[in-house]
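Hi C.,

You asked whether I'd gotten around to modeling the 268-residue construct. I have! Everything is below, sequence then structure, no commentary in between.
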Amino acid sequence: MKHVQSRDNPLFKMLHRLATSSRERREHRAALLEGPHLVEAFALHGGEAEVLAASESGMSRMEVAALFEDTPARRRAVLADRLFGEVTQIETPVGILAWINVPDPGPIPTQPADCLLLEEIQDAGNLGSILRSAAAAGVREIYLSRGSAFAWSPKVLRAGQGAHFALGIHEGAPLAEVAARFAGEVIATELGAAESLFALDLRGPVAWIFGNEGAGISAALASQARRRVSIPMPGTAESLNVAAAAAVCLFERVRQQCAMSGAHHPAP
């Protein structure tokens, strides 16, 4: 275990680059997990950090000290508080973070399972919320087009609240190709579509298409949708935020599946 006191320390310099540069994170396929919740979620899914770092003051907290001791990591370091403050993006940091390698989801399967096809989702909060909803709804495969936010950026990770580690996240994926391979329903939401989401039978395999916050879905990807549906909105809003729309769609399917099985899942 290292005690890091100087800005000239190579480990601090690398952590600082990863914390402040999205290009560095993408090039190194690396992510920084900040705070006990994300670090613990990563460990619970069998992850091993490249570096586990804590602040000097953080180590005085029982929760941080226990995670620092128990979380699998190749290297461990305790940073002076002033240095830790330069590599965290949390306003009031608890004092622990992990540098991890972005998990490899493997090749795109020949026959994709239930999934989300996300085209140029650029808002980090929206993307993280969508990933969280997908994990909660039992959808495990996520395909992101080029031009989407980096799924492992700090803001997406915070919004996802640990959902990332339960998902296979394929970035830069050929969405139209995945849709063409899919054996079940391929569904896109569209304002003004004649068919209502709530009129569909969603109990079988489904691939959901969601598009850019402003531009929506490209014509090329829309042509792969086998169903286009609208979400009924009796109020005055013109449309739903893409993360809200995704949550409505995913949990309408959960509702139908629960009704079919007679299962009941109480709210957390």
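If it helps when you're writing up: DSSP finds ten helices and twelve strands in the chain.

Thanks,
B.
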